């Protein structure tokens, strides 16, 4: 712990912060850089800030349960940081496994637009056509929905002469059936 010998201990600060939350900032100012260096050595500087923020948020939430007989809170903060680093690493392993499974299935390169377009099927078109809705109306409405999904997904802008909407689904061979153009 830094500071003159008569300075408040971490335990005193934590006890005060239960009634005056702004006092917790002093603890962060005291130990934030040290915890940041610890986390950065384990995860790299890119992820360190997020994990340090998570560490101090956890400490803030649990400050009322801190053992006041321990004047220095650094071991407690290091323990919280170590658990946060472990949780981050486990989450990263889960993401990597998921990405590997997606690559094995061939999903890795597909975007939202492609996955959504594959879900459009002739069966979904049967109901409007059976109700007597003209084929052109069905195409038009599906085209507008397709454009809205594409725009929402952040797809690149449409180029002049590019087939869009329902026509692009038909041209790509993704849909067929009633109303599909040959």
State the order of secondary-structure elements, H for helix, E for strand.
HHHHHHHH
Which regions are unreliable across 5 or more consecutive residues at pLDDT < 50?
Answer: 1-5, 177-182
Summarize the main sheet.
none
Please state roughly what percent of the residues sit in beta strands, choosing from under 5%, 5-15%, 15-25%, 25-35%, 35-45% or over 45%.
Answer: under 5%
- Separation of termini? 77 Å
CATH topology call of the largest domain? Rna Polymerase Sigma Factor, Chain: A
Helix-and-strand structural type:
mainly alpha
| CATH C-level category of the largest domain | Mainly Alpha
Number of helices: 8
Q: State the fourth-level CATH superfamily of the largest domain.
A: RNA polymerase sigma factor, region 2, helix turn helix motif
Assign a percent range to the helix content.
55-70%
Radius of gyration: 29 Å
Morphology:
elongated
Q: What oligomeric state is this?
A: single chain
Describe it.
There is one protein chain. By secondary structure, the chain is mostly helical. The protein folds into two domains: 10-105, RNA polymerase sigma factor, region 2, helix turn helix motif (Rna Polymerase Sigma Factor, Chain: A), CATH 1.10.1740.10; 112-171, no CATH class. 66% of the residues lie in helices and 0% in strands. It has helices at residues 10-19, 24-43, 45-61, 74-105, 112-119, 122-130, 135-152, 165-171. Helix 2 packs antiparallel against helix 3 and helix 3 packs across helix 4 (74-105). The radius of gyration is 29 Å and the shape is elongated. The protein starts with 9 loop residues before the first helix and ends in an 11-residue tail after the last helix.
């Amino acid at each position: 712990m830094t500071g003159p010998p008569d300075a408040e201990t971490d335990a005193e600060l934590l006890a005060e912060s239960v009634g005056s939350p702004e006092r917790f900032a002093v603890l962060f100012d005291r130990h934030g850089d040290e915890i940041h260096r610890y986390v950065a050595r384990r995860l790299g500087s890119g992820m360190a800030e997020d994990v340090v923020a998570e560490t101090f948020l956890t400490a803030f939430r649990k400050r009322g349960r801190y053992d006041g007989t321990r004047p220095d809170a650094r071991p407690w903060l290091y323990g919280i940081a170590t658990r946060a680093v472990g949780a981050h690493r486990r989450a990263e392993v889960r993401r990597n496994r998921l990405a590997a499974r997606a690559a094995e299935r061939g999903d890795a390169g597909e975007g939202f637009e492609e996955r959504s377009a594959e879900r459009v099927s002739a069966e979904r078109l049967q109901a409007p056509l059976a109700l007597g809705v003209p084929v052109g109306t069905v195409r038009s409405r599906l085209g507008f929905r397709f454009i809205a999904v594409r725009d929402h997904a952040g797809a690149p802008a449409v180029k002049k002469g590019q087939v869009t909407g329902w026509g692009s689904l038909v041209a790509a061979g993704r849909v067929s059936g009633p109303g599909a153009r040959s």
